Amino acid sequence: MRPVAHVLVTRQLPFPALDRLGIAHDLDVWPERLPPPPDELQRRAADAEGILSLLSDRIDEPLMAAAPELRAISNYAVGYDNIDLAAAAARGIRVGNTPDVLTDATADLAFALLLAVARKLPEAQRDVRAGNWLTWEPAHPLGQEVHGSTLGIIGYGRIGRAVAKRAEGFDMTVIHTGTPRAPGLSLEELLERSDFVSIHAPLTPETHHLIDAAALAGMRPSAILINTARGPLVDQQALIAALEHGTIAGAGLDVTDPEPVPADDPLLAAPNLIVLPHIGSATHTARGRMADMAVENLLAGLEGQPMPHQVTDDSQ
Ligand code: DGY
User: Fold this and answer.
1) Atom 4 in ligand 1: which residue has the minimum CA distance?
2) Which domain range does residue 255 map to?
3) Catalytic annotation, pick one of 71, 278, 287, 309
4) Strand 196-199 relative to strand 224-227: parallel, antiparallel, unpaired?
5) Closest of 289, 303, 304, 311 to residue 25, by C-alpha
6) Which of 78, 125, 181, 315 has the least C-beta neighbours within 10 A?
7) CA 237/CA 77 separation, integer angstroms
8) Domain for residue 28, yes or no?
9) Do 10 and 52 touch, CB atoms closer than 8 A?
């Protein structure tokens, strides 16, 4: 019989996959709704051989140094910017993620945001609830035509391509920045030509604040920015200024910097903006399949086998 390993699971995952993990190994499941504070995370990781982490858990070098038995980290997310991959590689710790299974859910949400900002759904809904639906009005609220417009996609990986597929159904012209192996348009050209810009790039030191004041100034005044990737890809202060000054027409964010965004953050007072609480993958199907995949990764890693979805320092 294979030996039972001690595994830290940083949040309760209400999916059957966790039961499978619990049958094979000894689990320490963090019971709270909020993430474990960093010192508590490090304390609990000290004797862990495996960690099933969430994107809100920082798994850095000091944590790994304090966890000498650690040999497998499985992130319950496709993104893994919360994990120091170089530190993990240096210690021979395998790291896994959950690609593919959330692609469609996230692409759907990006498109939902695009449509909602373009057609001013929050304002329209507010009017109805406030008793401000007085009659059918010729010019209120007027939004932007999505059909036939140009969509610029930054980061043309799995999710970017899935968004492009949805755009085809709206007869949109899709342009993109390509992938590291097959580069497409320059960012400047894409921003200049797009009616809508949707971000699907990973967060790395190179992409931090990719959309800054200069990039926003390069967009059309009628353009709408959508971000369902990671908050720090956008310079949030620059975005607030761009919305306030009409440099761009609107934005839809599923991700912010920081997360959660405080309720009194000036971002939330910016005009023509929808902010969602990072729910791109939040469907029953996607989150359940992410749990399956995260558990498969962890089980393999604990056995000393390559994970089915293992990431490396150059996976970006
Ligand atoms: C991810 O998986 O990286 C998403 O941001 C959350 O599902």
Assistant:
1) 77
2) 103-275
3) 278
4) parallel
5) 303
6) 181
7) 27
8) yes
9) yes
Task: Give the model confidence (pLDDT) of 50-64 as tens digits.
Answer: 999 999 999 999 999
Q: What ranges make up the beta strands (E) of the chain?
A: 6-9, 26-29, 50-53, 72-75, 94-96, 150-154, 173-176, 196-199, 224-227, 250-253, 273-275
Identify the band that residue 2 occupies on the pLDDT scale cut at 50, 70 and 90.
low
Which of 200, 230, 287, 309 does the annotation list as catalytic?
230
Is residue 118 within 8 Å of residue 165, measured between CB atoms?
no
Amino acid in the structure at residue 297: N
For ligand 1, atom 3, which residue shows the shortest CA distance? Answer: 79
172 domain-assigned: yes
**Band of the pLDDT at 312, cuts 50, 70, 90?**
confident
Q: By C-alpha distance, which of 144, 167, 10, 139 is closest to 74?
A: 10
**Interatomic CA distance for residues 290 and 184, integer angstroms:** 30
User: 162 pLDDT exceeds 90?
Assistant: yes
Residue 256, CA distances (Å) to 186, 192, 245, 286 in order: 24, 24, 20, 21
Pocket lining: 199 vs ligand 1, CB cutoff 6 Å: no
CATH number at residue 157: 3.40.50.720
Quick one: 12 and 153 in the same domain? no
- Distance from C-alpha of 109 to C-alpha of 286, rounded to nearest angstrom: 12
Residue type, 61: E
Distances (CA, A) of 286 to 101, 237, 298, 300: 6, 32, 18, 21
Q: Do 261 and 112 belong to one domain?
A: yes
Domain count, the chain: 2
